[in-house]
Amino acid sequence: METTCAPKESYQRFHVLHRLLHIIIIFNFTLLAVTGFLLHFSPFGWARFLVSVMGGVGAAGWLHRCSALFLYLGIIIHLSWLFYYKLVLKKNLSGPDSVLPGKKDAKDLYQNLRYMFNRGTPPLFDRFSYLQKVDYWAVMLGMQSMGITGLLMCFPEFFTRFVPGHFINIATHFHFHEALLAVMYIGLVHMADTHLVPDIFPMEKTIFTGKIDQDRFMEDHPEEWKRQQMVKE
Amino acid sequence: MHTGTIKPNNTFKTELIFVLLAIGCFLLILGLFSNAQANPTASSPLSTWFVDMKQYSSAAHGSLKCEECHGPMNGNGIGKMAPKASLHPNPEADGFLKTQTKRTFDYQSCKKCHGTAHERFKKGEHAKAAAKEKTDGQPSKTGFAPTCGDCHSAHYAKSHQTREMIGKEMTRTCGSCHPDQKASFLANYHGKAGVNLGYDKAAFCTDCHGAHTTISLKDKDVVLATCKRCHPNATPEFANIIIHDSTKNIALKTDAKKAGLKWVYWLGSLSLFFVAAVLVFFYTHTGLLMLRKLHEKLRRHK
């Protein structure tokens, strides 16, 4: 850890809106996970204790539904920003800066797998690495499936007018499995890949401050760095 | 976009992570210890030949005199209230105090005070099972057809219980003969919220099946009427939601639920497999990548 005290060049990586949305997601995701898993782990004493601290099953249920609402509100804000970006700012949603999966991601994955076994150099990522894209789409698609199955379970009287009764049971299983996936993915893969990387440990602060150091920029997103330098010249 | 300069920040305490981890571990251990509290206390013991008077006098029937149920034990078999039950067992006989009280006691005397319950019981599934047991000469797969004493402890059942306490007690009582149904109920929202977390608005066994009729809810209209007691806006399809969501005892279910359960089982397994596959891939990916990066870092600092 031989860091010099000389100030480093830093660049803006995340817009304030996205930093805010990320905080909204962290807060509501945690609340949802806690209140949801308390129901699943209800045979255990600590679950019962925590539920009573929250004010009983009814209160925990409302907390779960409210945080779901706020989390989905975040998704809606993000979607409206995408429309604004495309229609008002007239910018391109595809291209190298995009989170849309492309051929480069498959190549990067292959190259990274080779790198893991010391068969080559690490891939040169653009603005978003394929892992970051997976993070994005895990939330984006996961929230849709959690939203739909959650609504099915929240208003079974209404939805059974249109769908067979056992769909509610299927929704219950999907909701739990997806929750398991989300928590175990975010808790280990997302956390490890952002914070536990030896050069970054103990904490990656870019998503909160919006700023990225020049050396991290050059190392983690070399393709984007190269494109920016070309624009400057 | 260039935003100027920031100073490197080395003040973040790595120790904090370990403190947080330690707190997490502590909470986990605390949770494991508190498990014992979650397990409901043992149910009140069923009545036998011997009576614990201390428990009896504090129980629901504590104010009753023995004769009120057992008749005057004058030994000649001419009791006034329940002639059959009034005969005191012969102390010289072989089976003295060895016969099962629950199978030999004549529960007709309960009818005197609990007329409605008795009428319902006579119409119910357990009474039908008892009749079948008599013609077949042997108990069904579930066990002896229960009469009053198999579920209720005449000597020790407590009164003034909360809805939650009664719910827990009945889950244990019904579950002792119907363990699969108990397990699937406890896996359902009603069971988790009601029995495990003490939500008194959740439905317990008898709220759907009836306390004394104990019907198995196969008739469409009856099921819908049952759901509507708590879910007034329930539709006919709402009644096809499978509460006992388990492939055990599938033969007992209605055709609509049998068909639905197949889908629930396959899609549920498929989604669990998908989750496992995704997690295995990404855990391996992350693990290997971390090892490689750590290796590179250590090599650089040699």
Fold topology:
The complex is a heterodimer of chains A (233) and B (302).
Chain A: E1 8-12, H1 16-40, H2 45-54, H3 56-88, H4 103-116, H5 130-154, H6 156-159, H7 166-195, H8 206-209, E2 211-213, H9 214-220, H10 222-232
Chain B: E1 2-6, H1 14-33, H2 35-38, H3 53-58, H4 66-70, H5 101-104, H6 115-123, H7 125-136, H8 148-151, H9 163-177, H10 179-187, H11 189-196, H12 205-209, H13 220-228, H14 255-300
Helix pairs in contact in B: 9-10, 10-11
Write up what this structure looks like.
The complex is a heterodimer of chains A (233) and B (302). Chain A has a two-stranded antiparallel sheet. Chain A has ten helices and two strands, in the order βααααααααβαα. Chain A has helices at residues 16-40, 45-54, 56-88, 103-116, 130-154, 156-159, 166-195, 206-209, 214-220, 222-232, and strands at residues 8-12, 211-213. Chain A is mainly α and 233 residues long. Helices cover 70% and strands 3% of the residues of chain A. By secondary structure, chain B is an all-alpha fold. Among the domains of chain B are: 162-246, no CATH class; 254-296. Chain B contains 14 helices and one strand. Chain B has helices at 14-33, 35-38, 53-58, 66-70, 101-104, 115-123, 125-136, 148-151, 163-177, 179-187, 189-196, 205-209, 220-228, 255-300, and one strand spanning 2-6. Chains A and B meet through β1, α1, α2, α3 and α4 of A and β1, α1, α2, α11 and α14 of B.
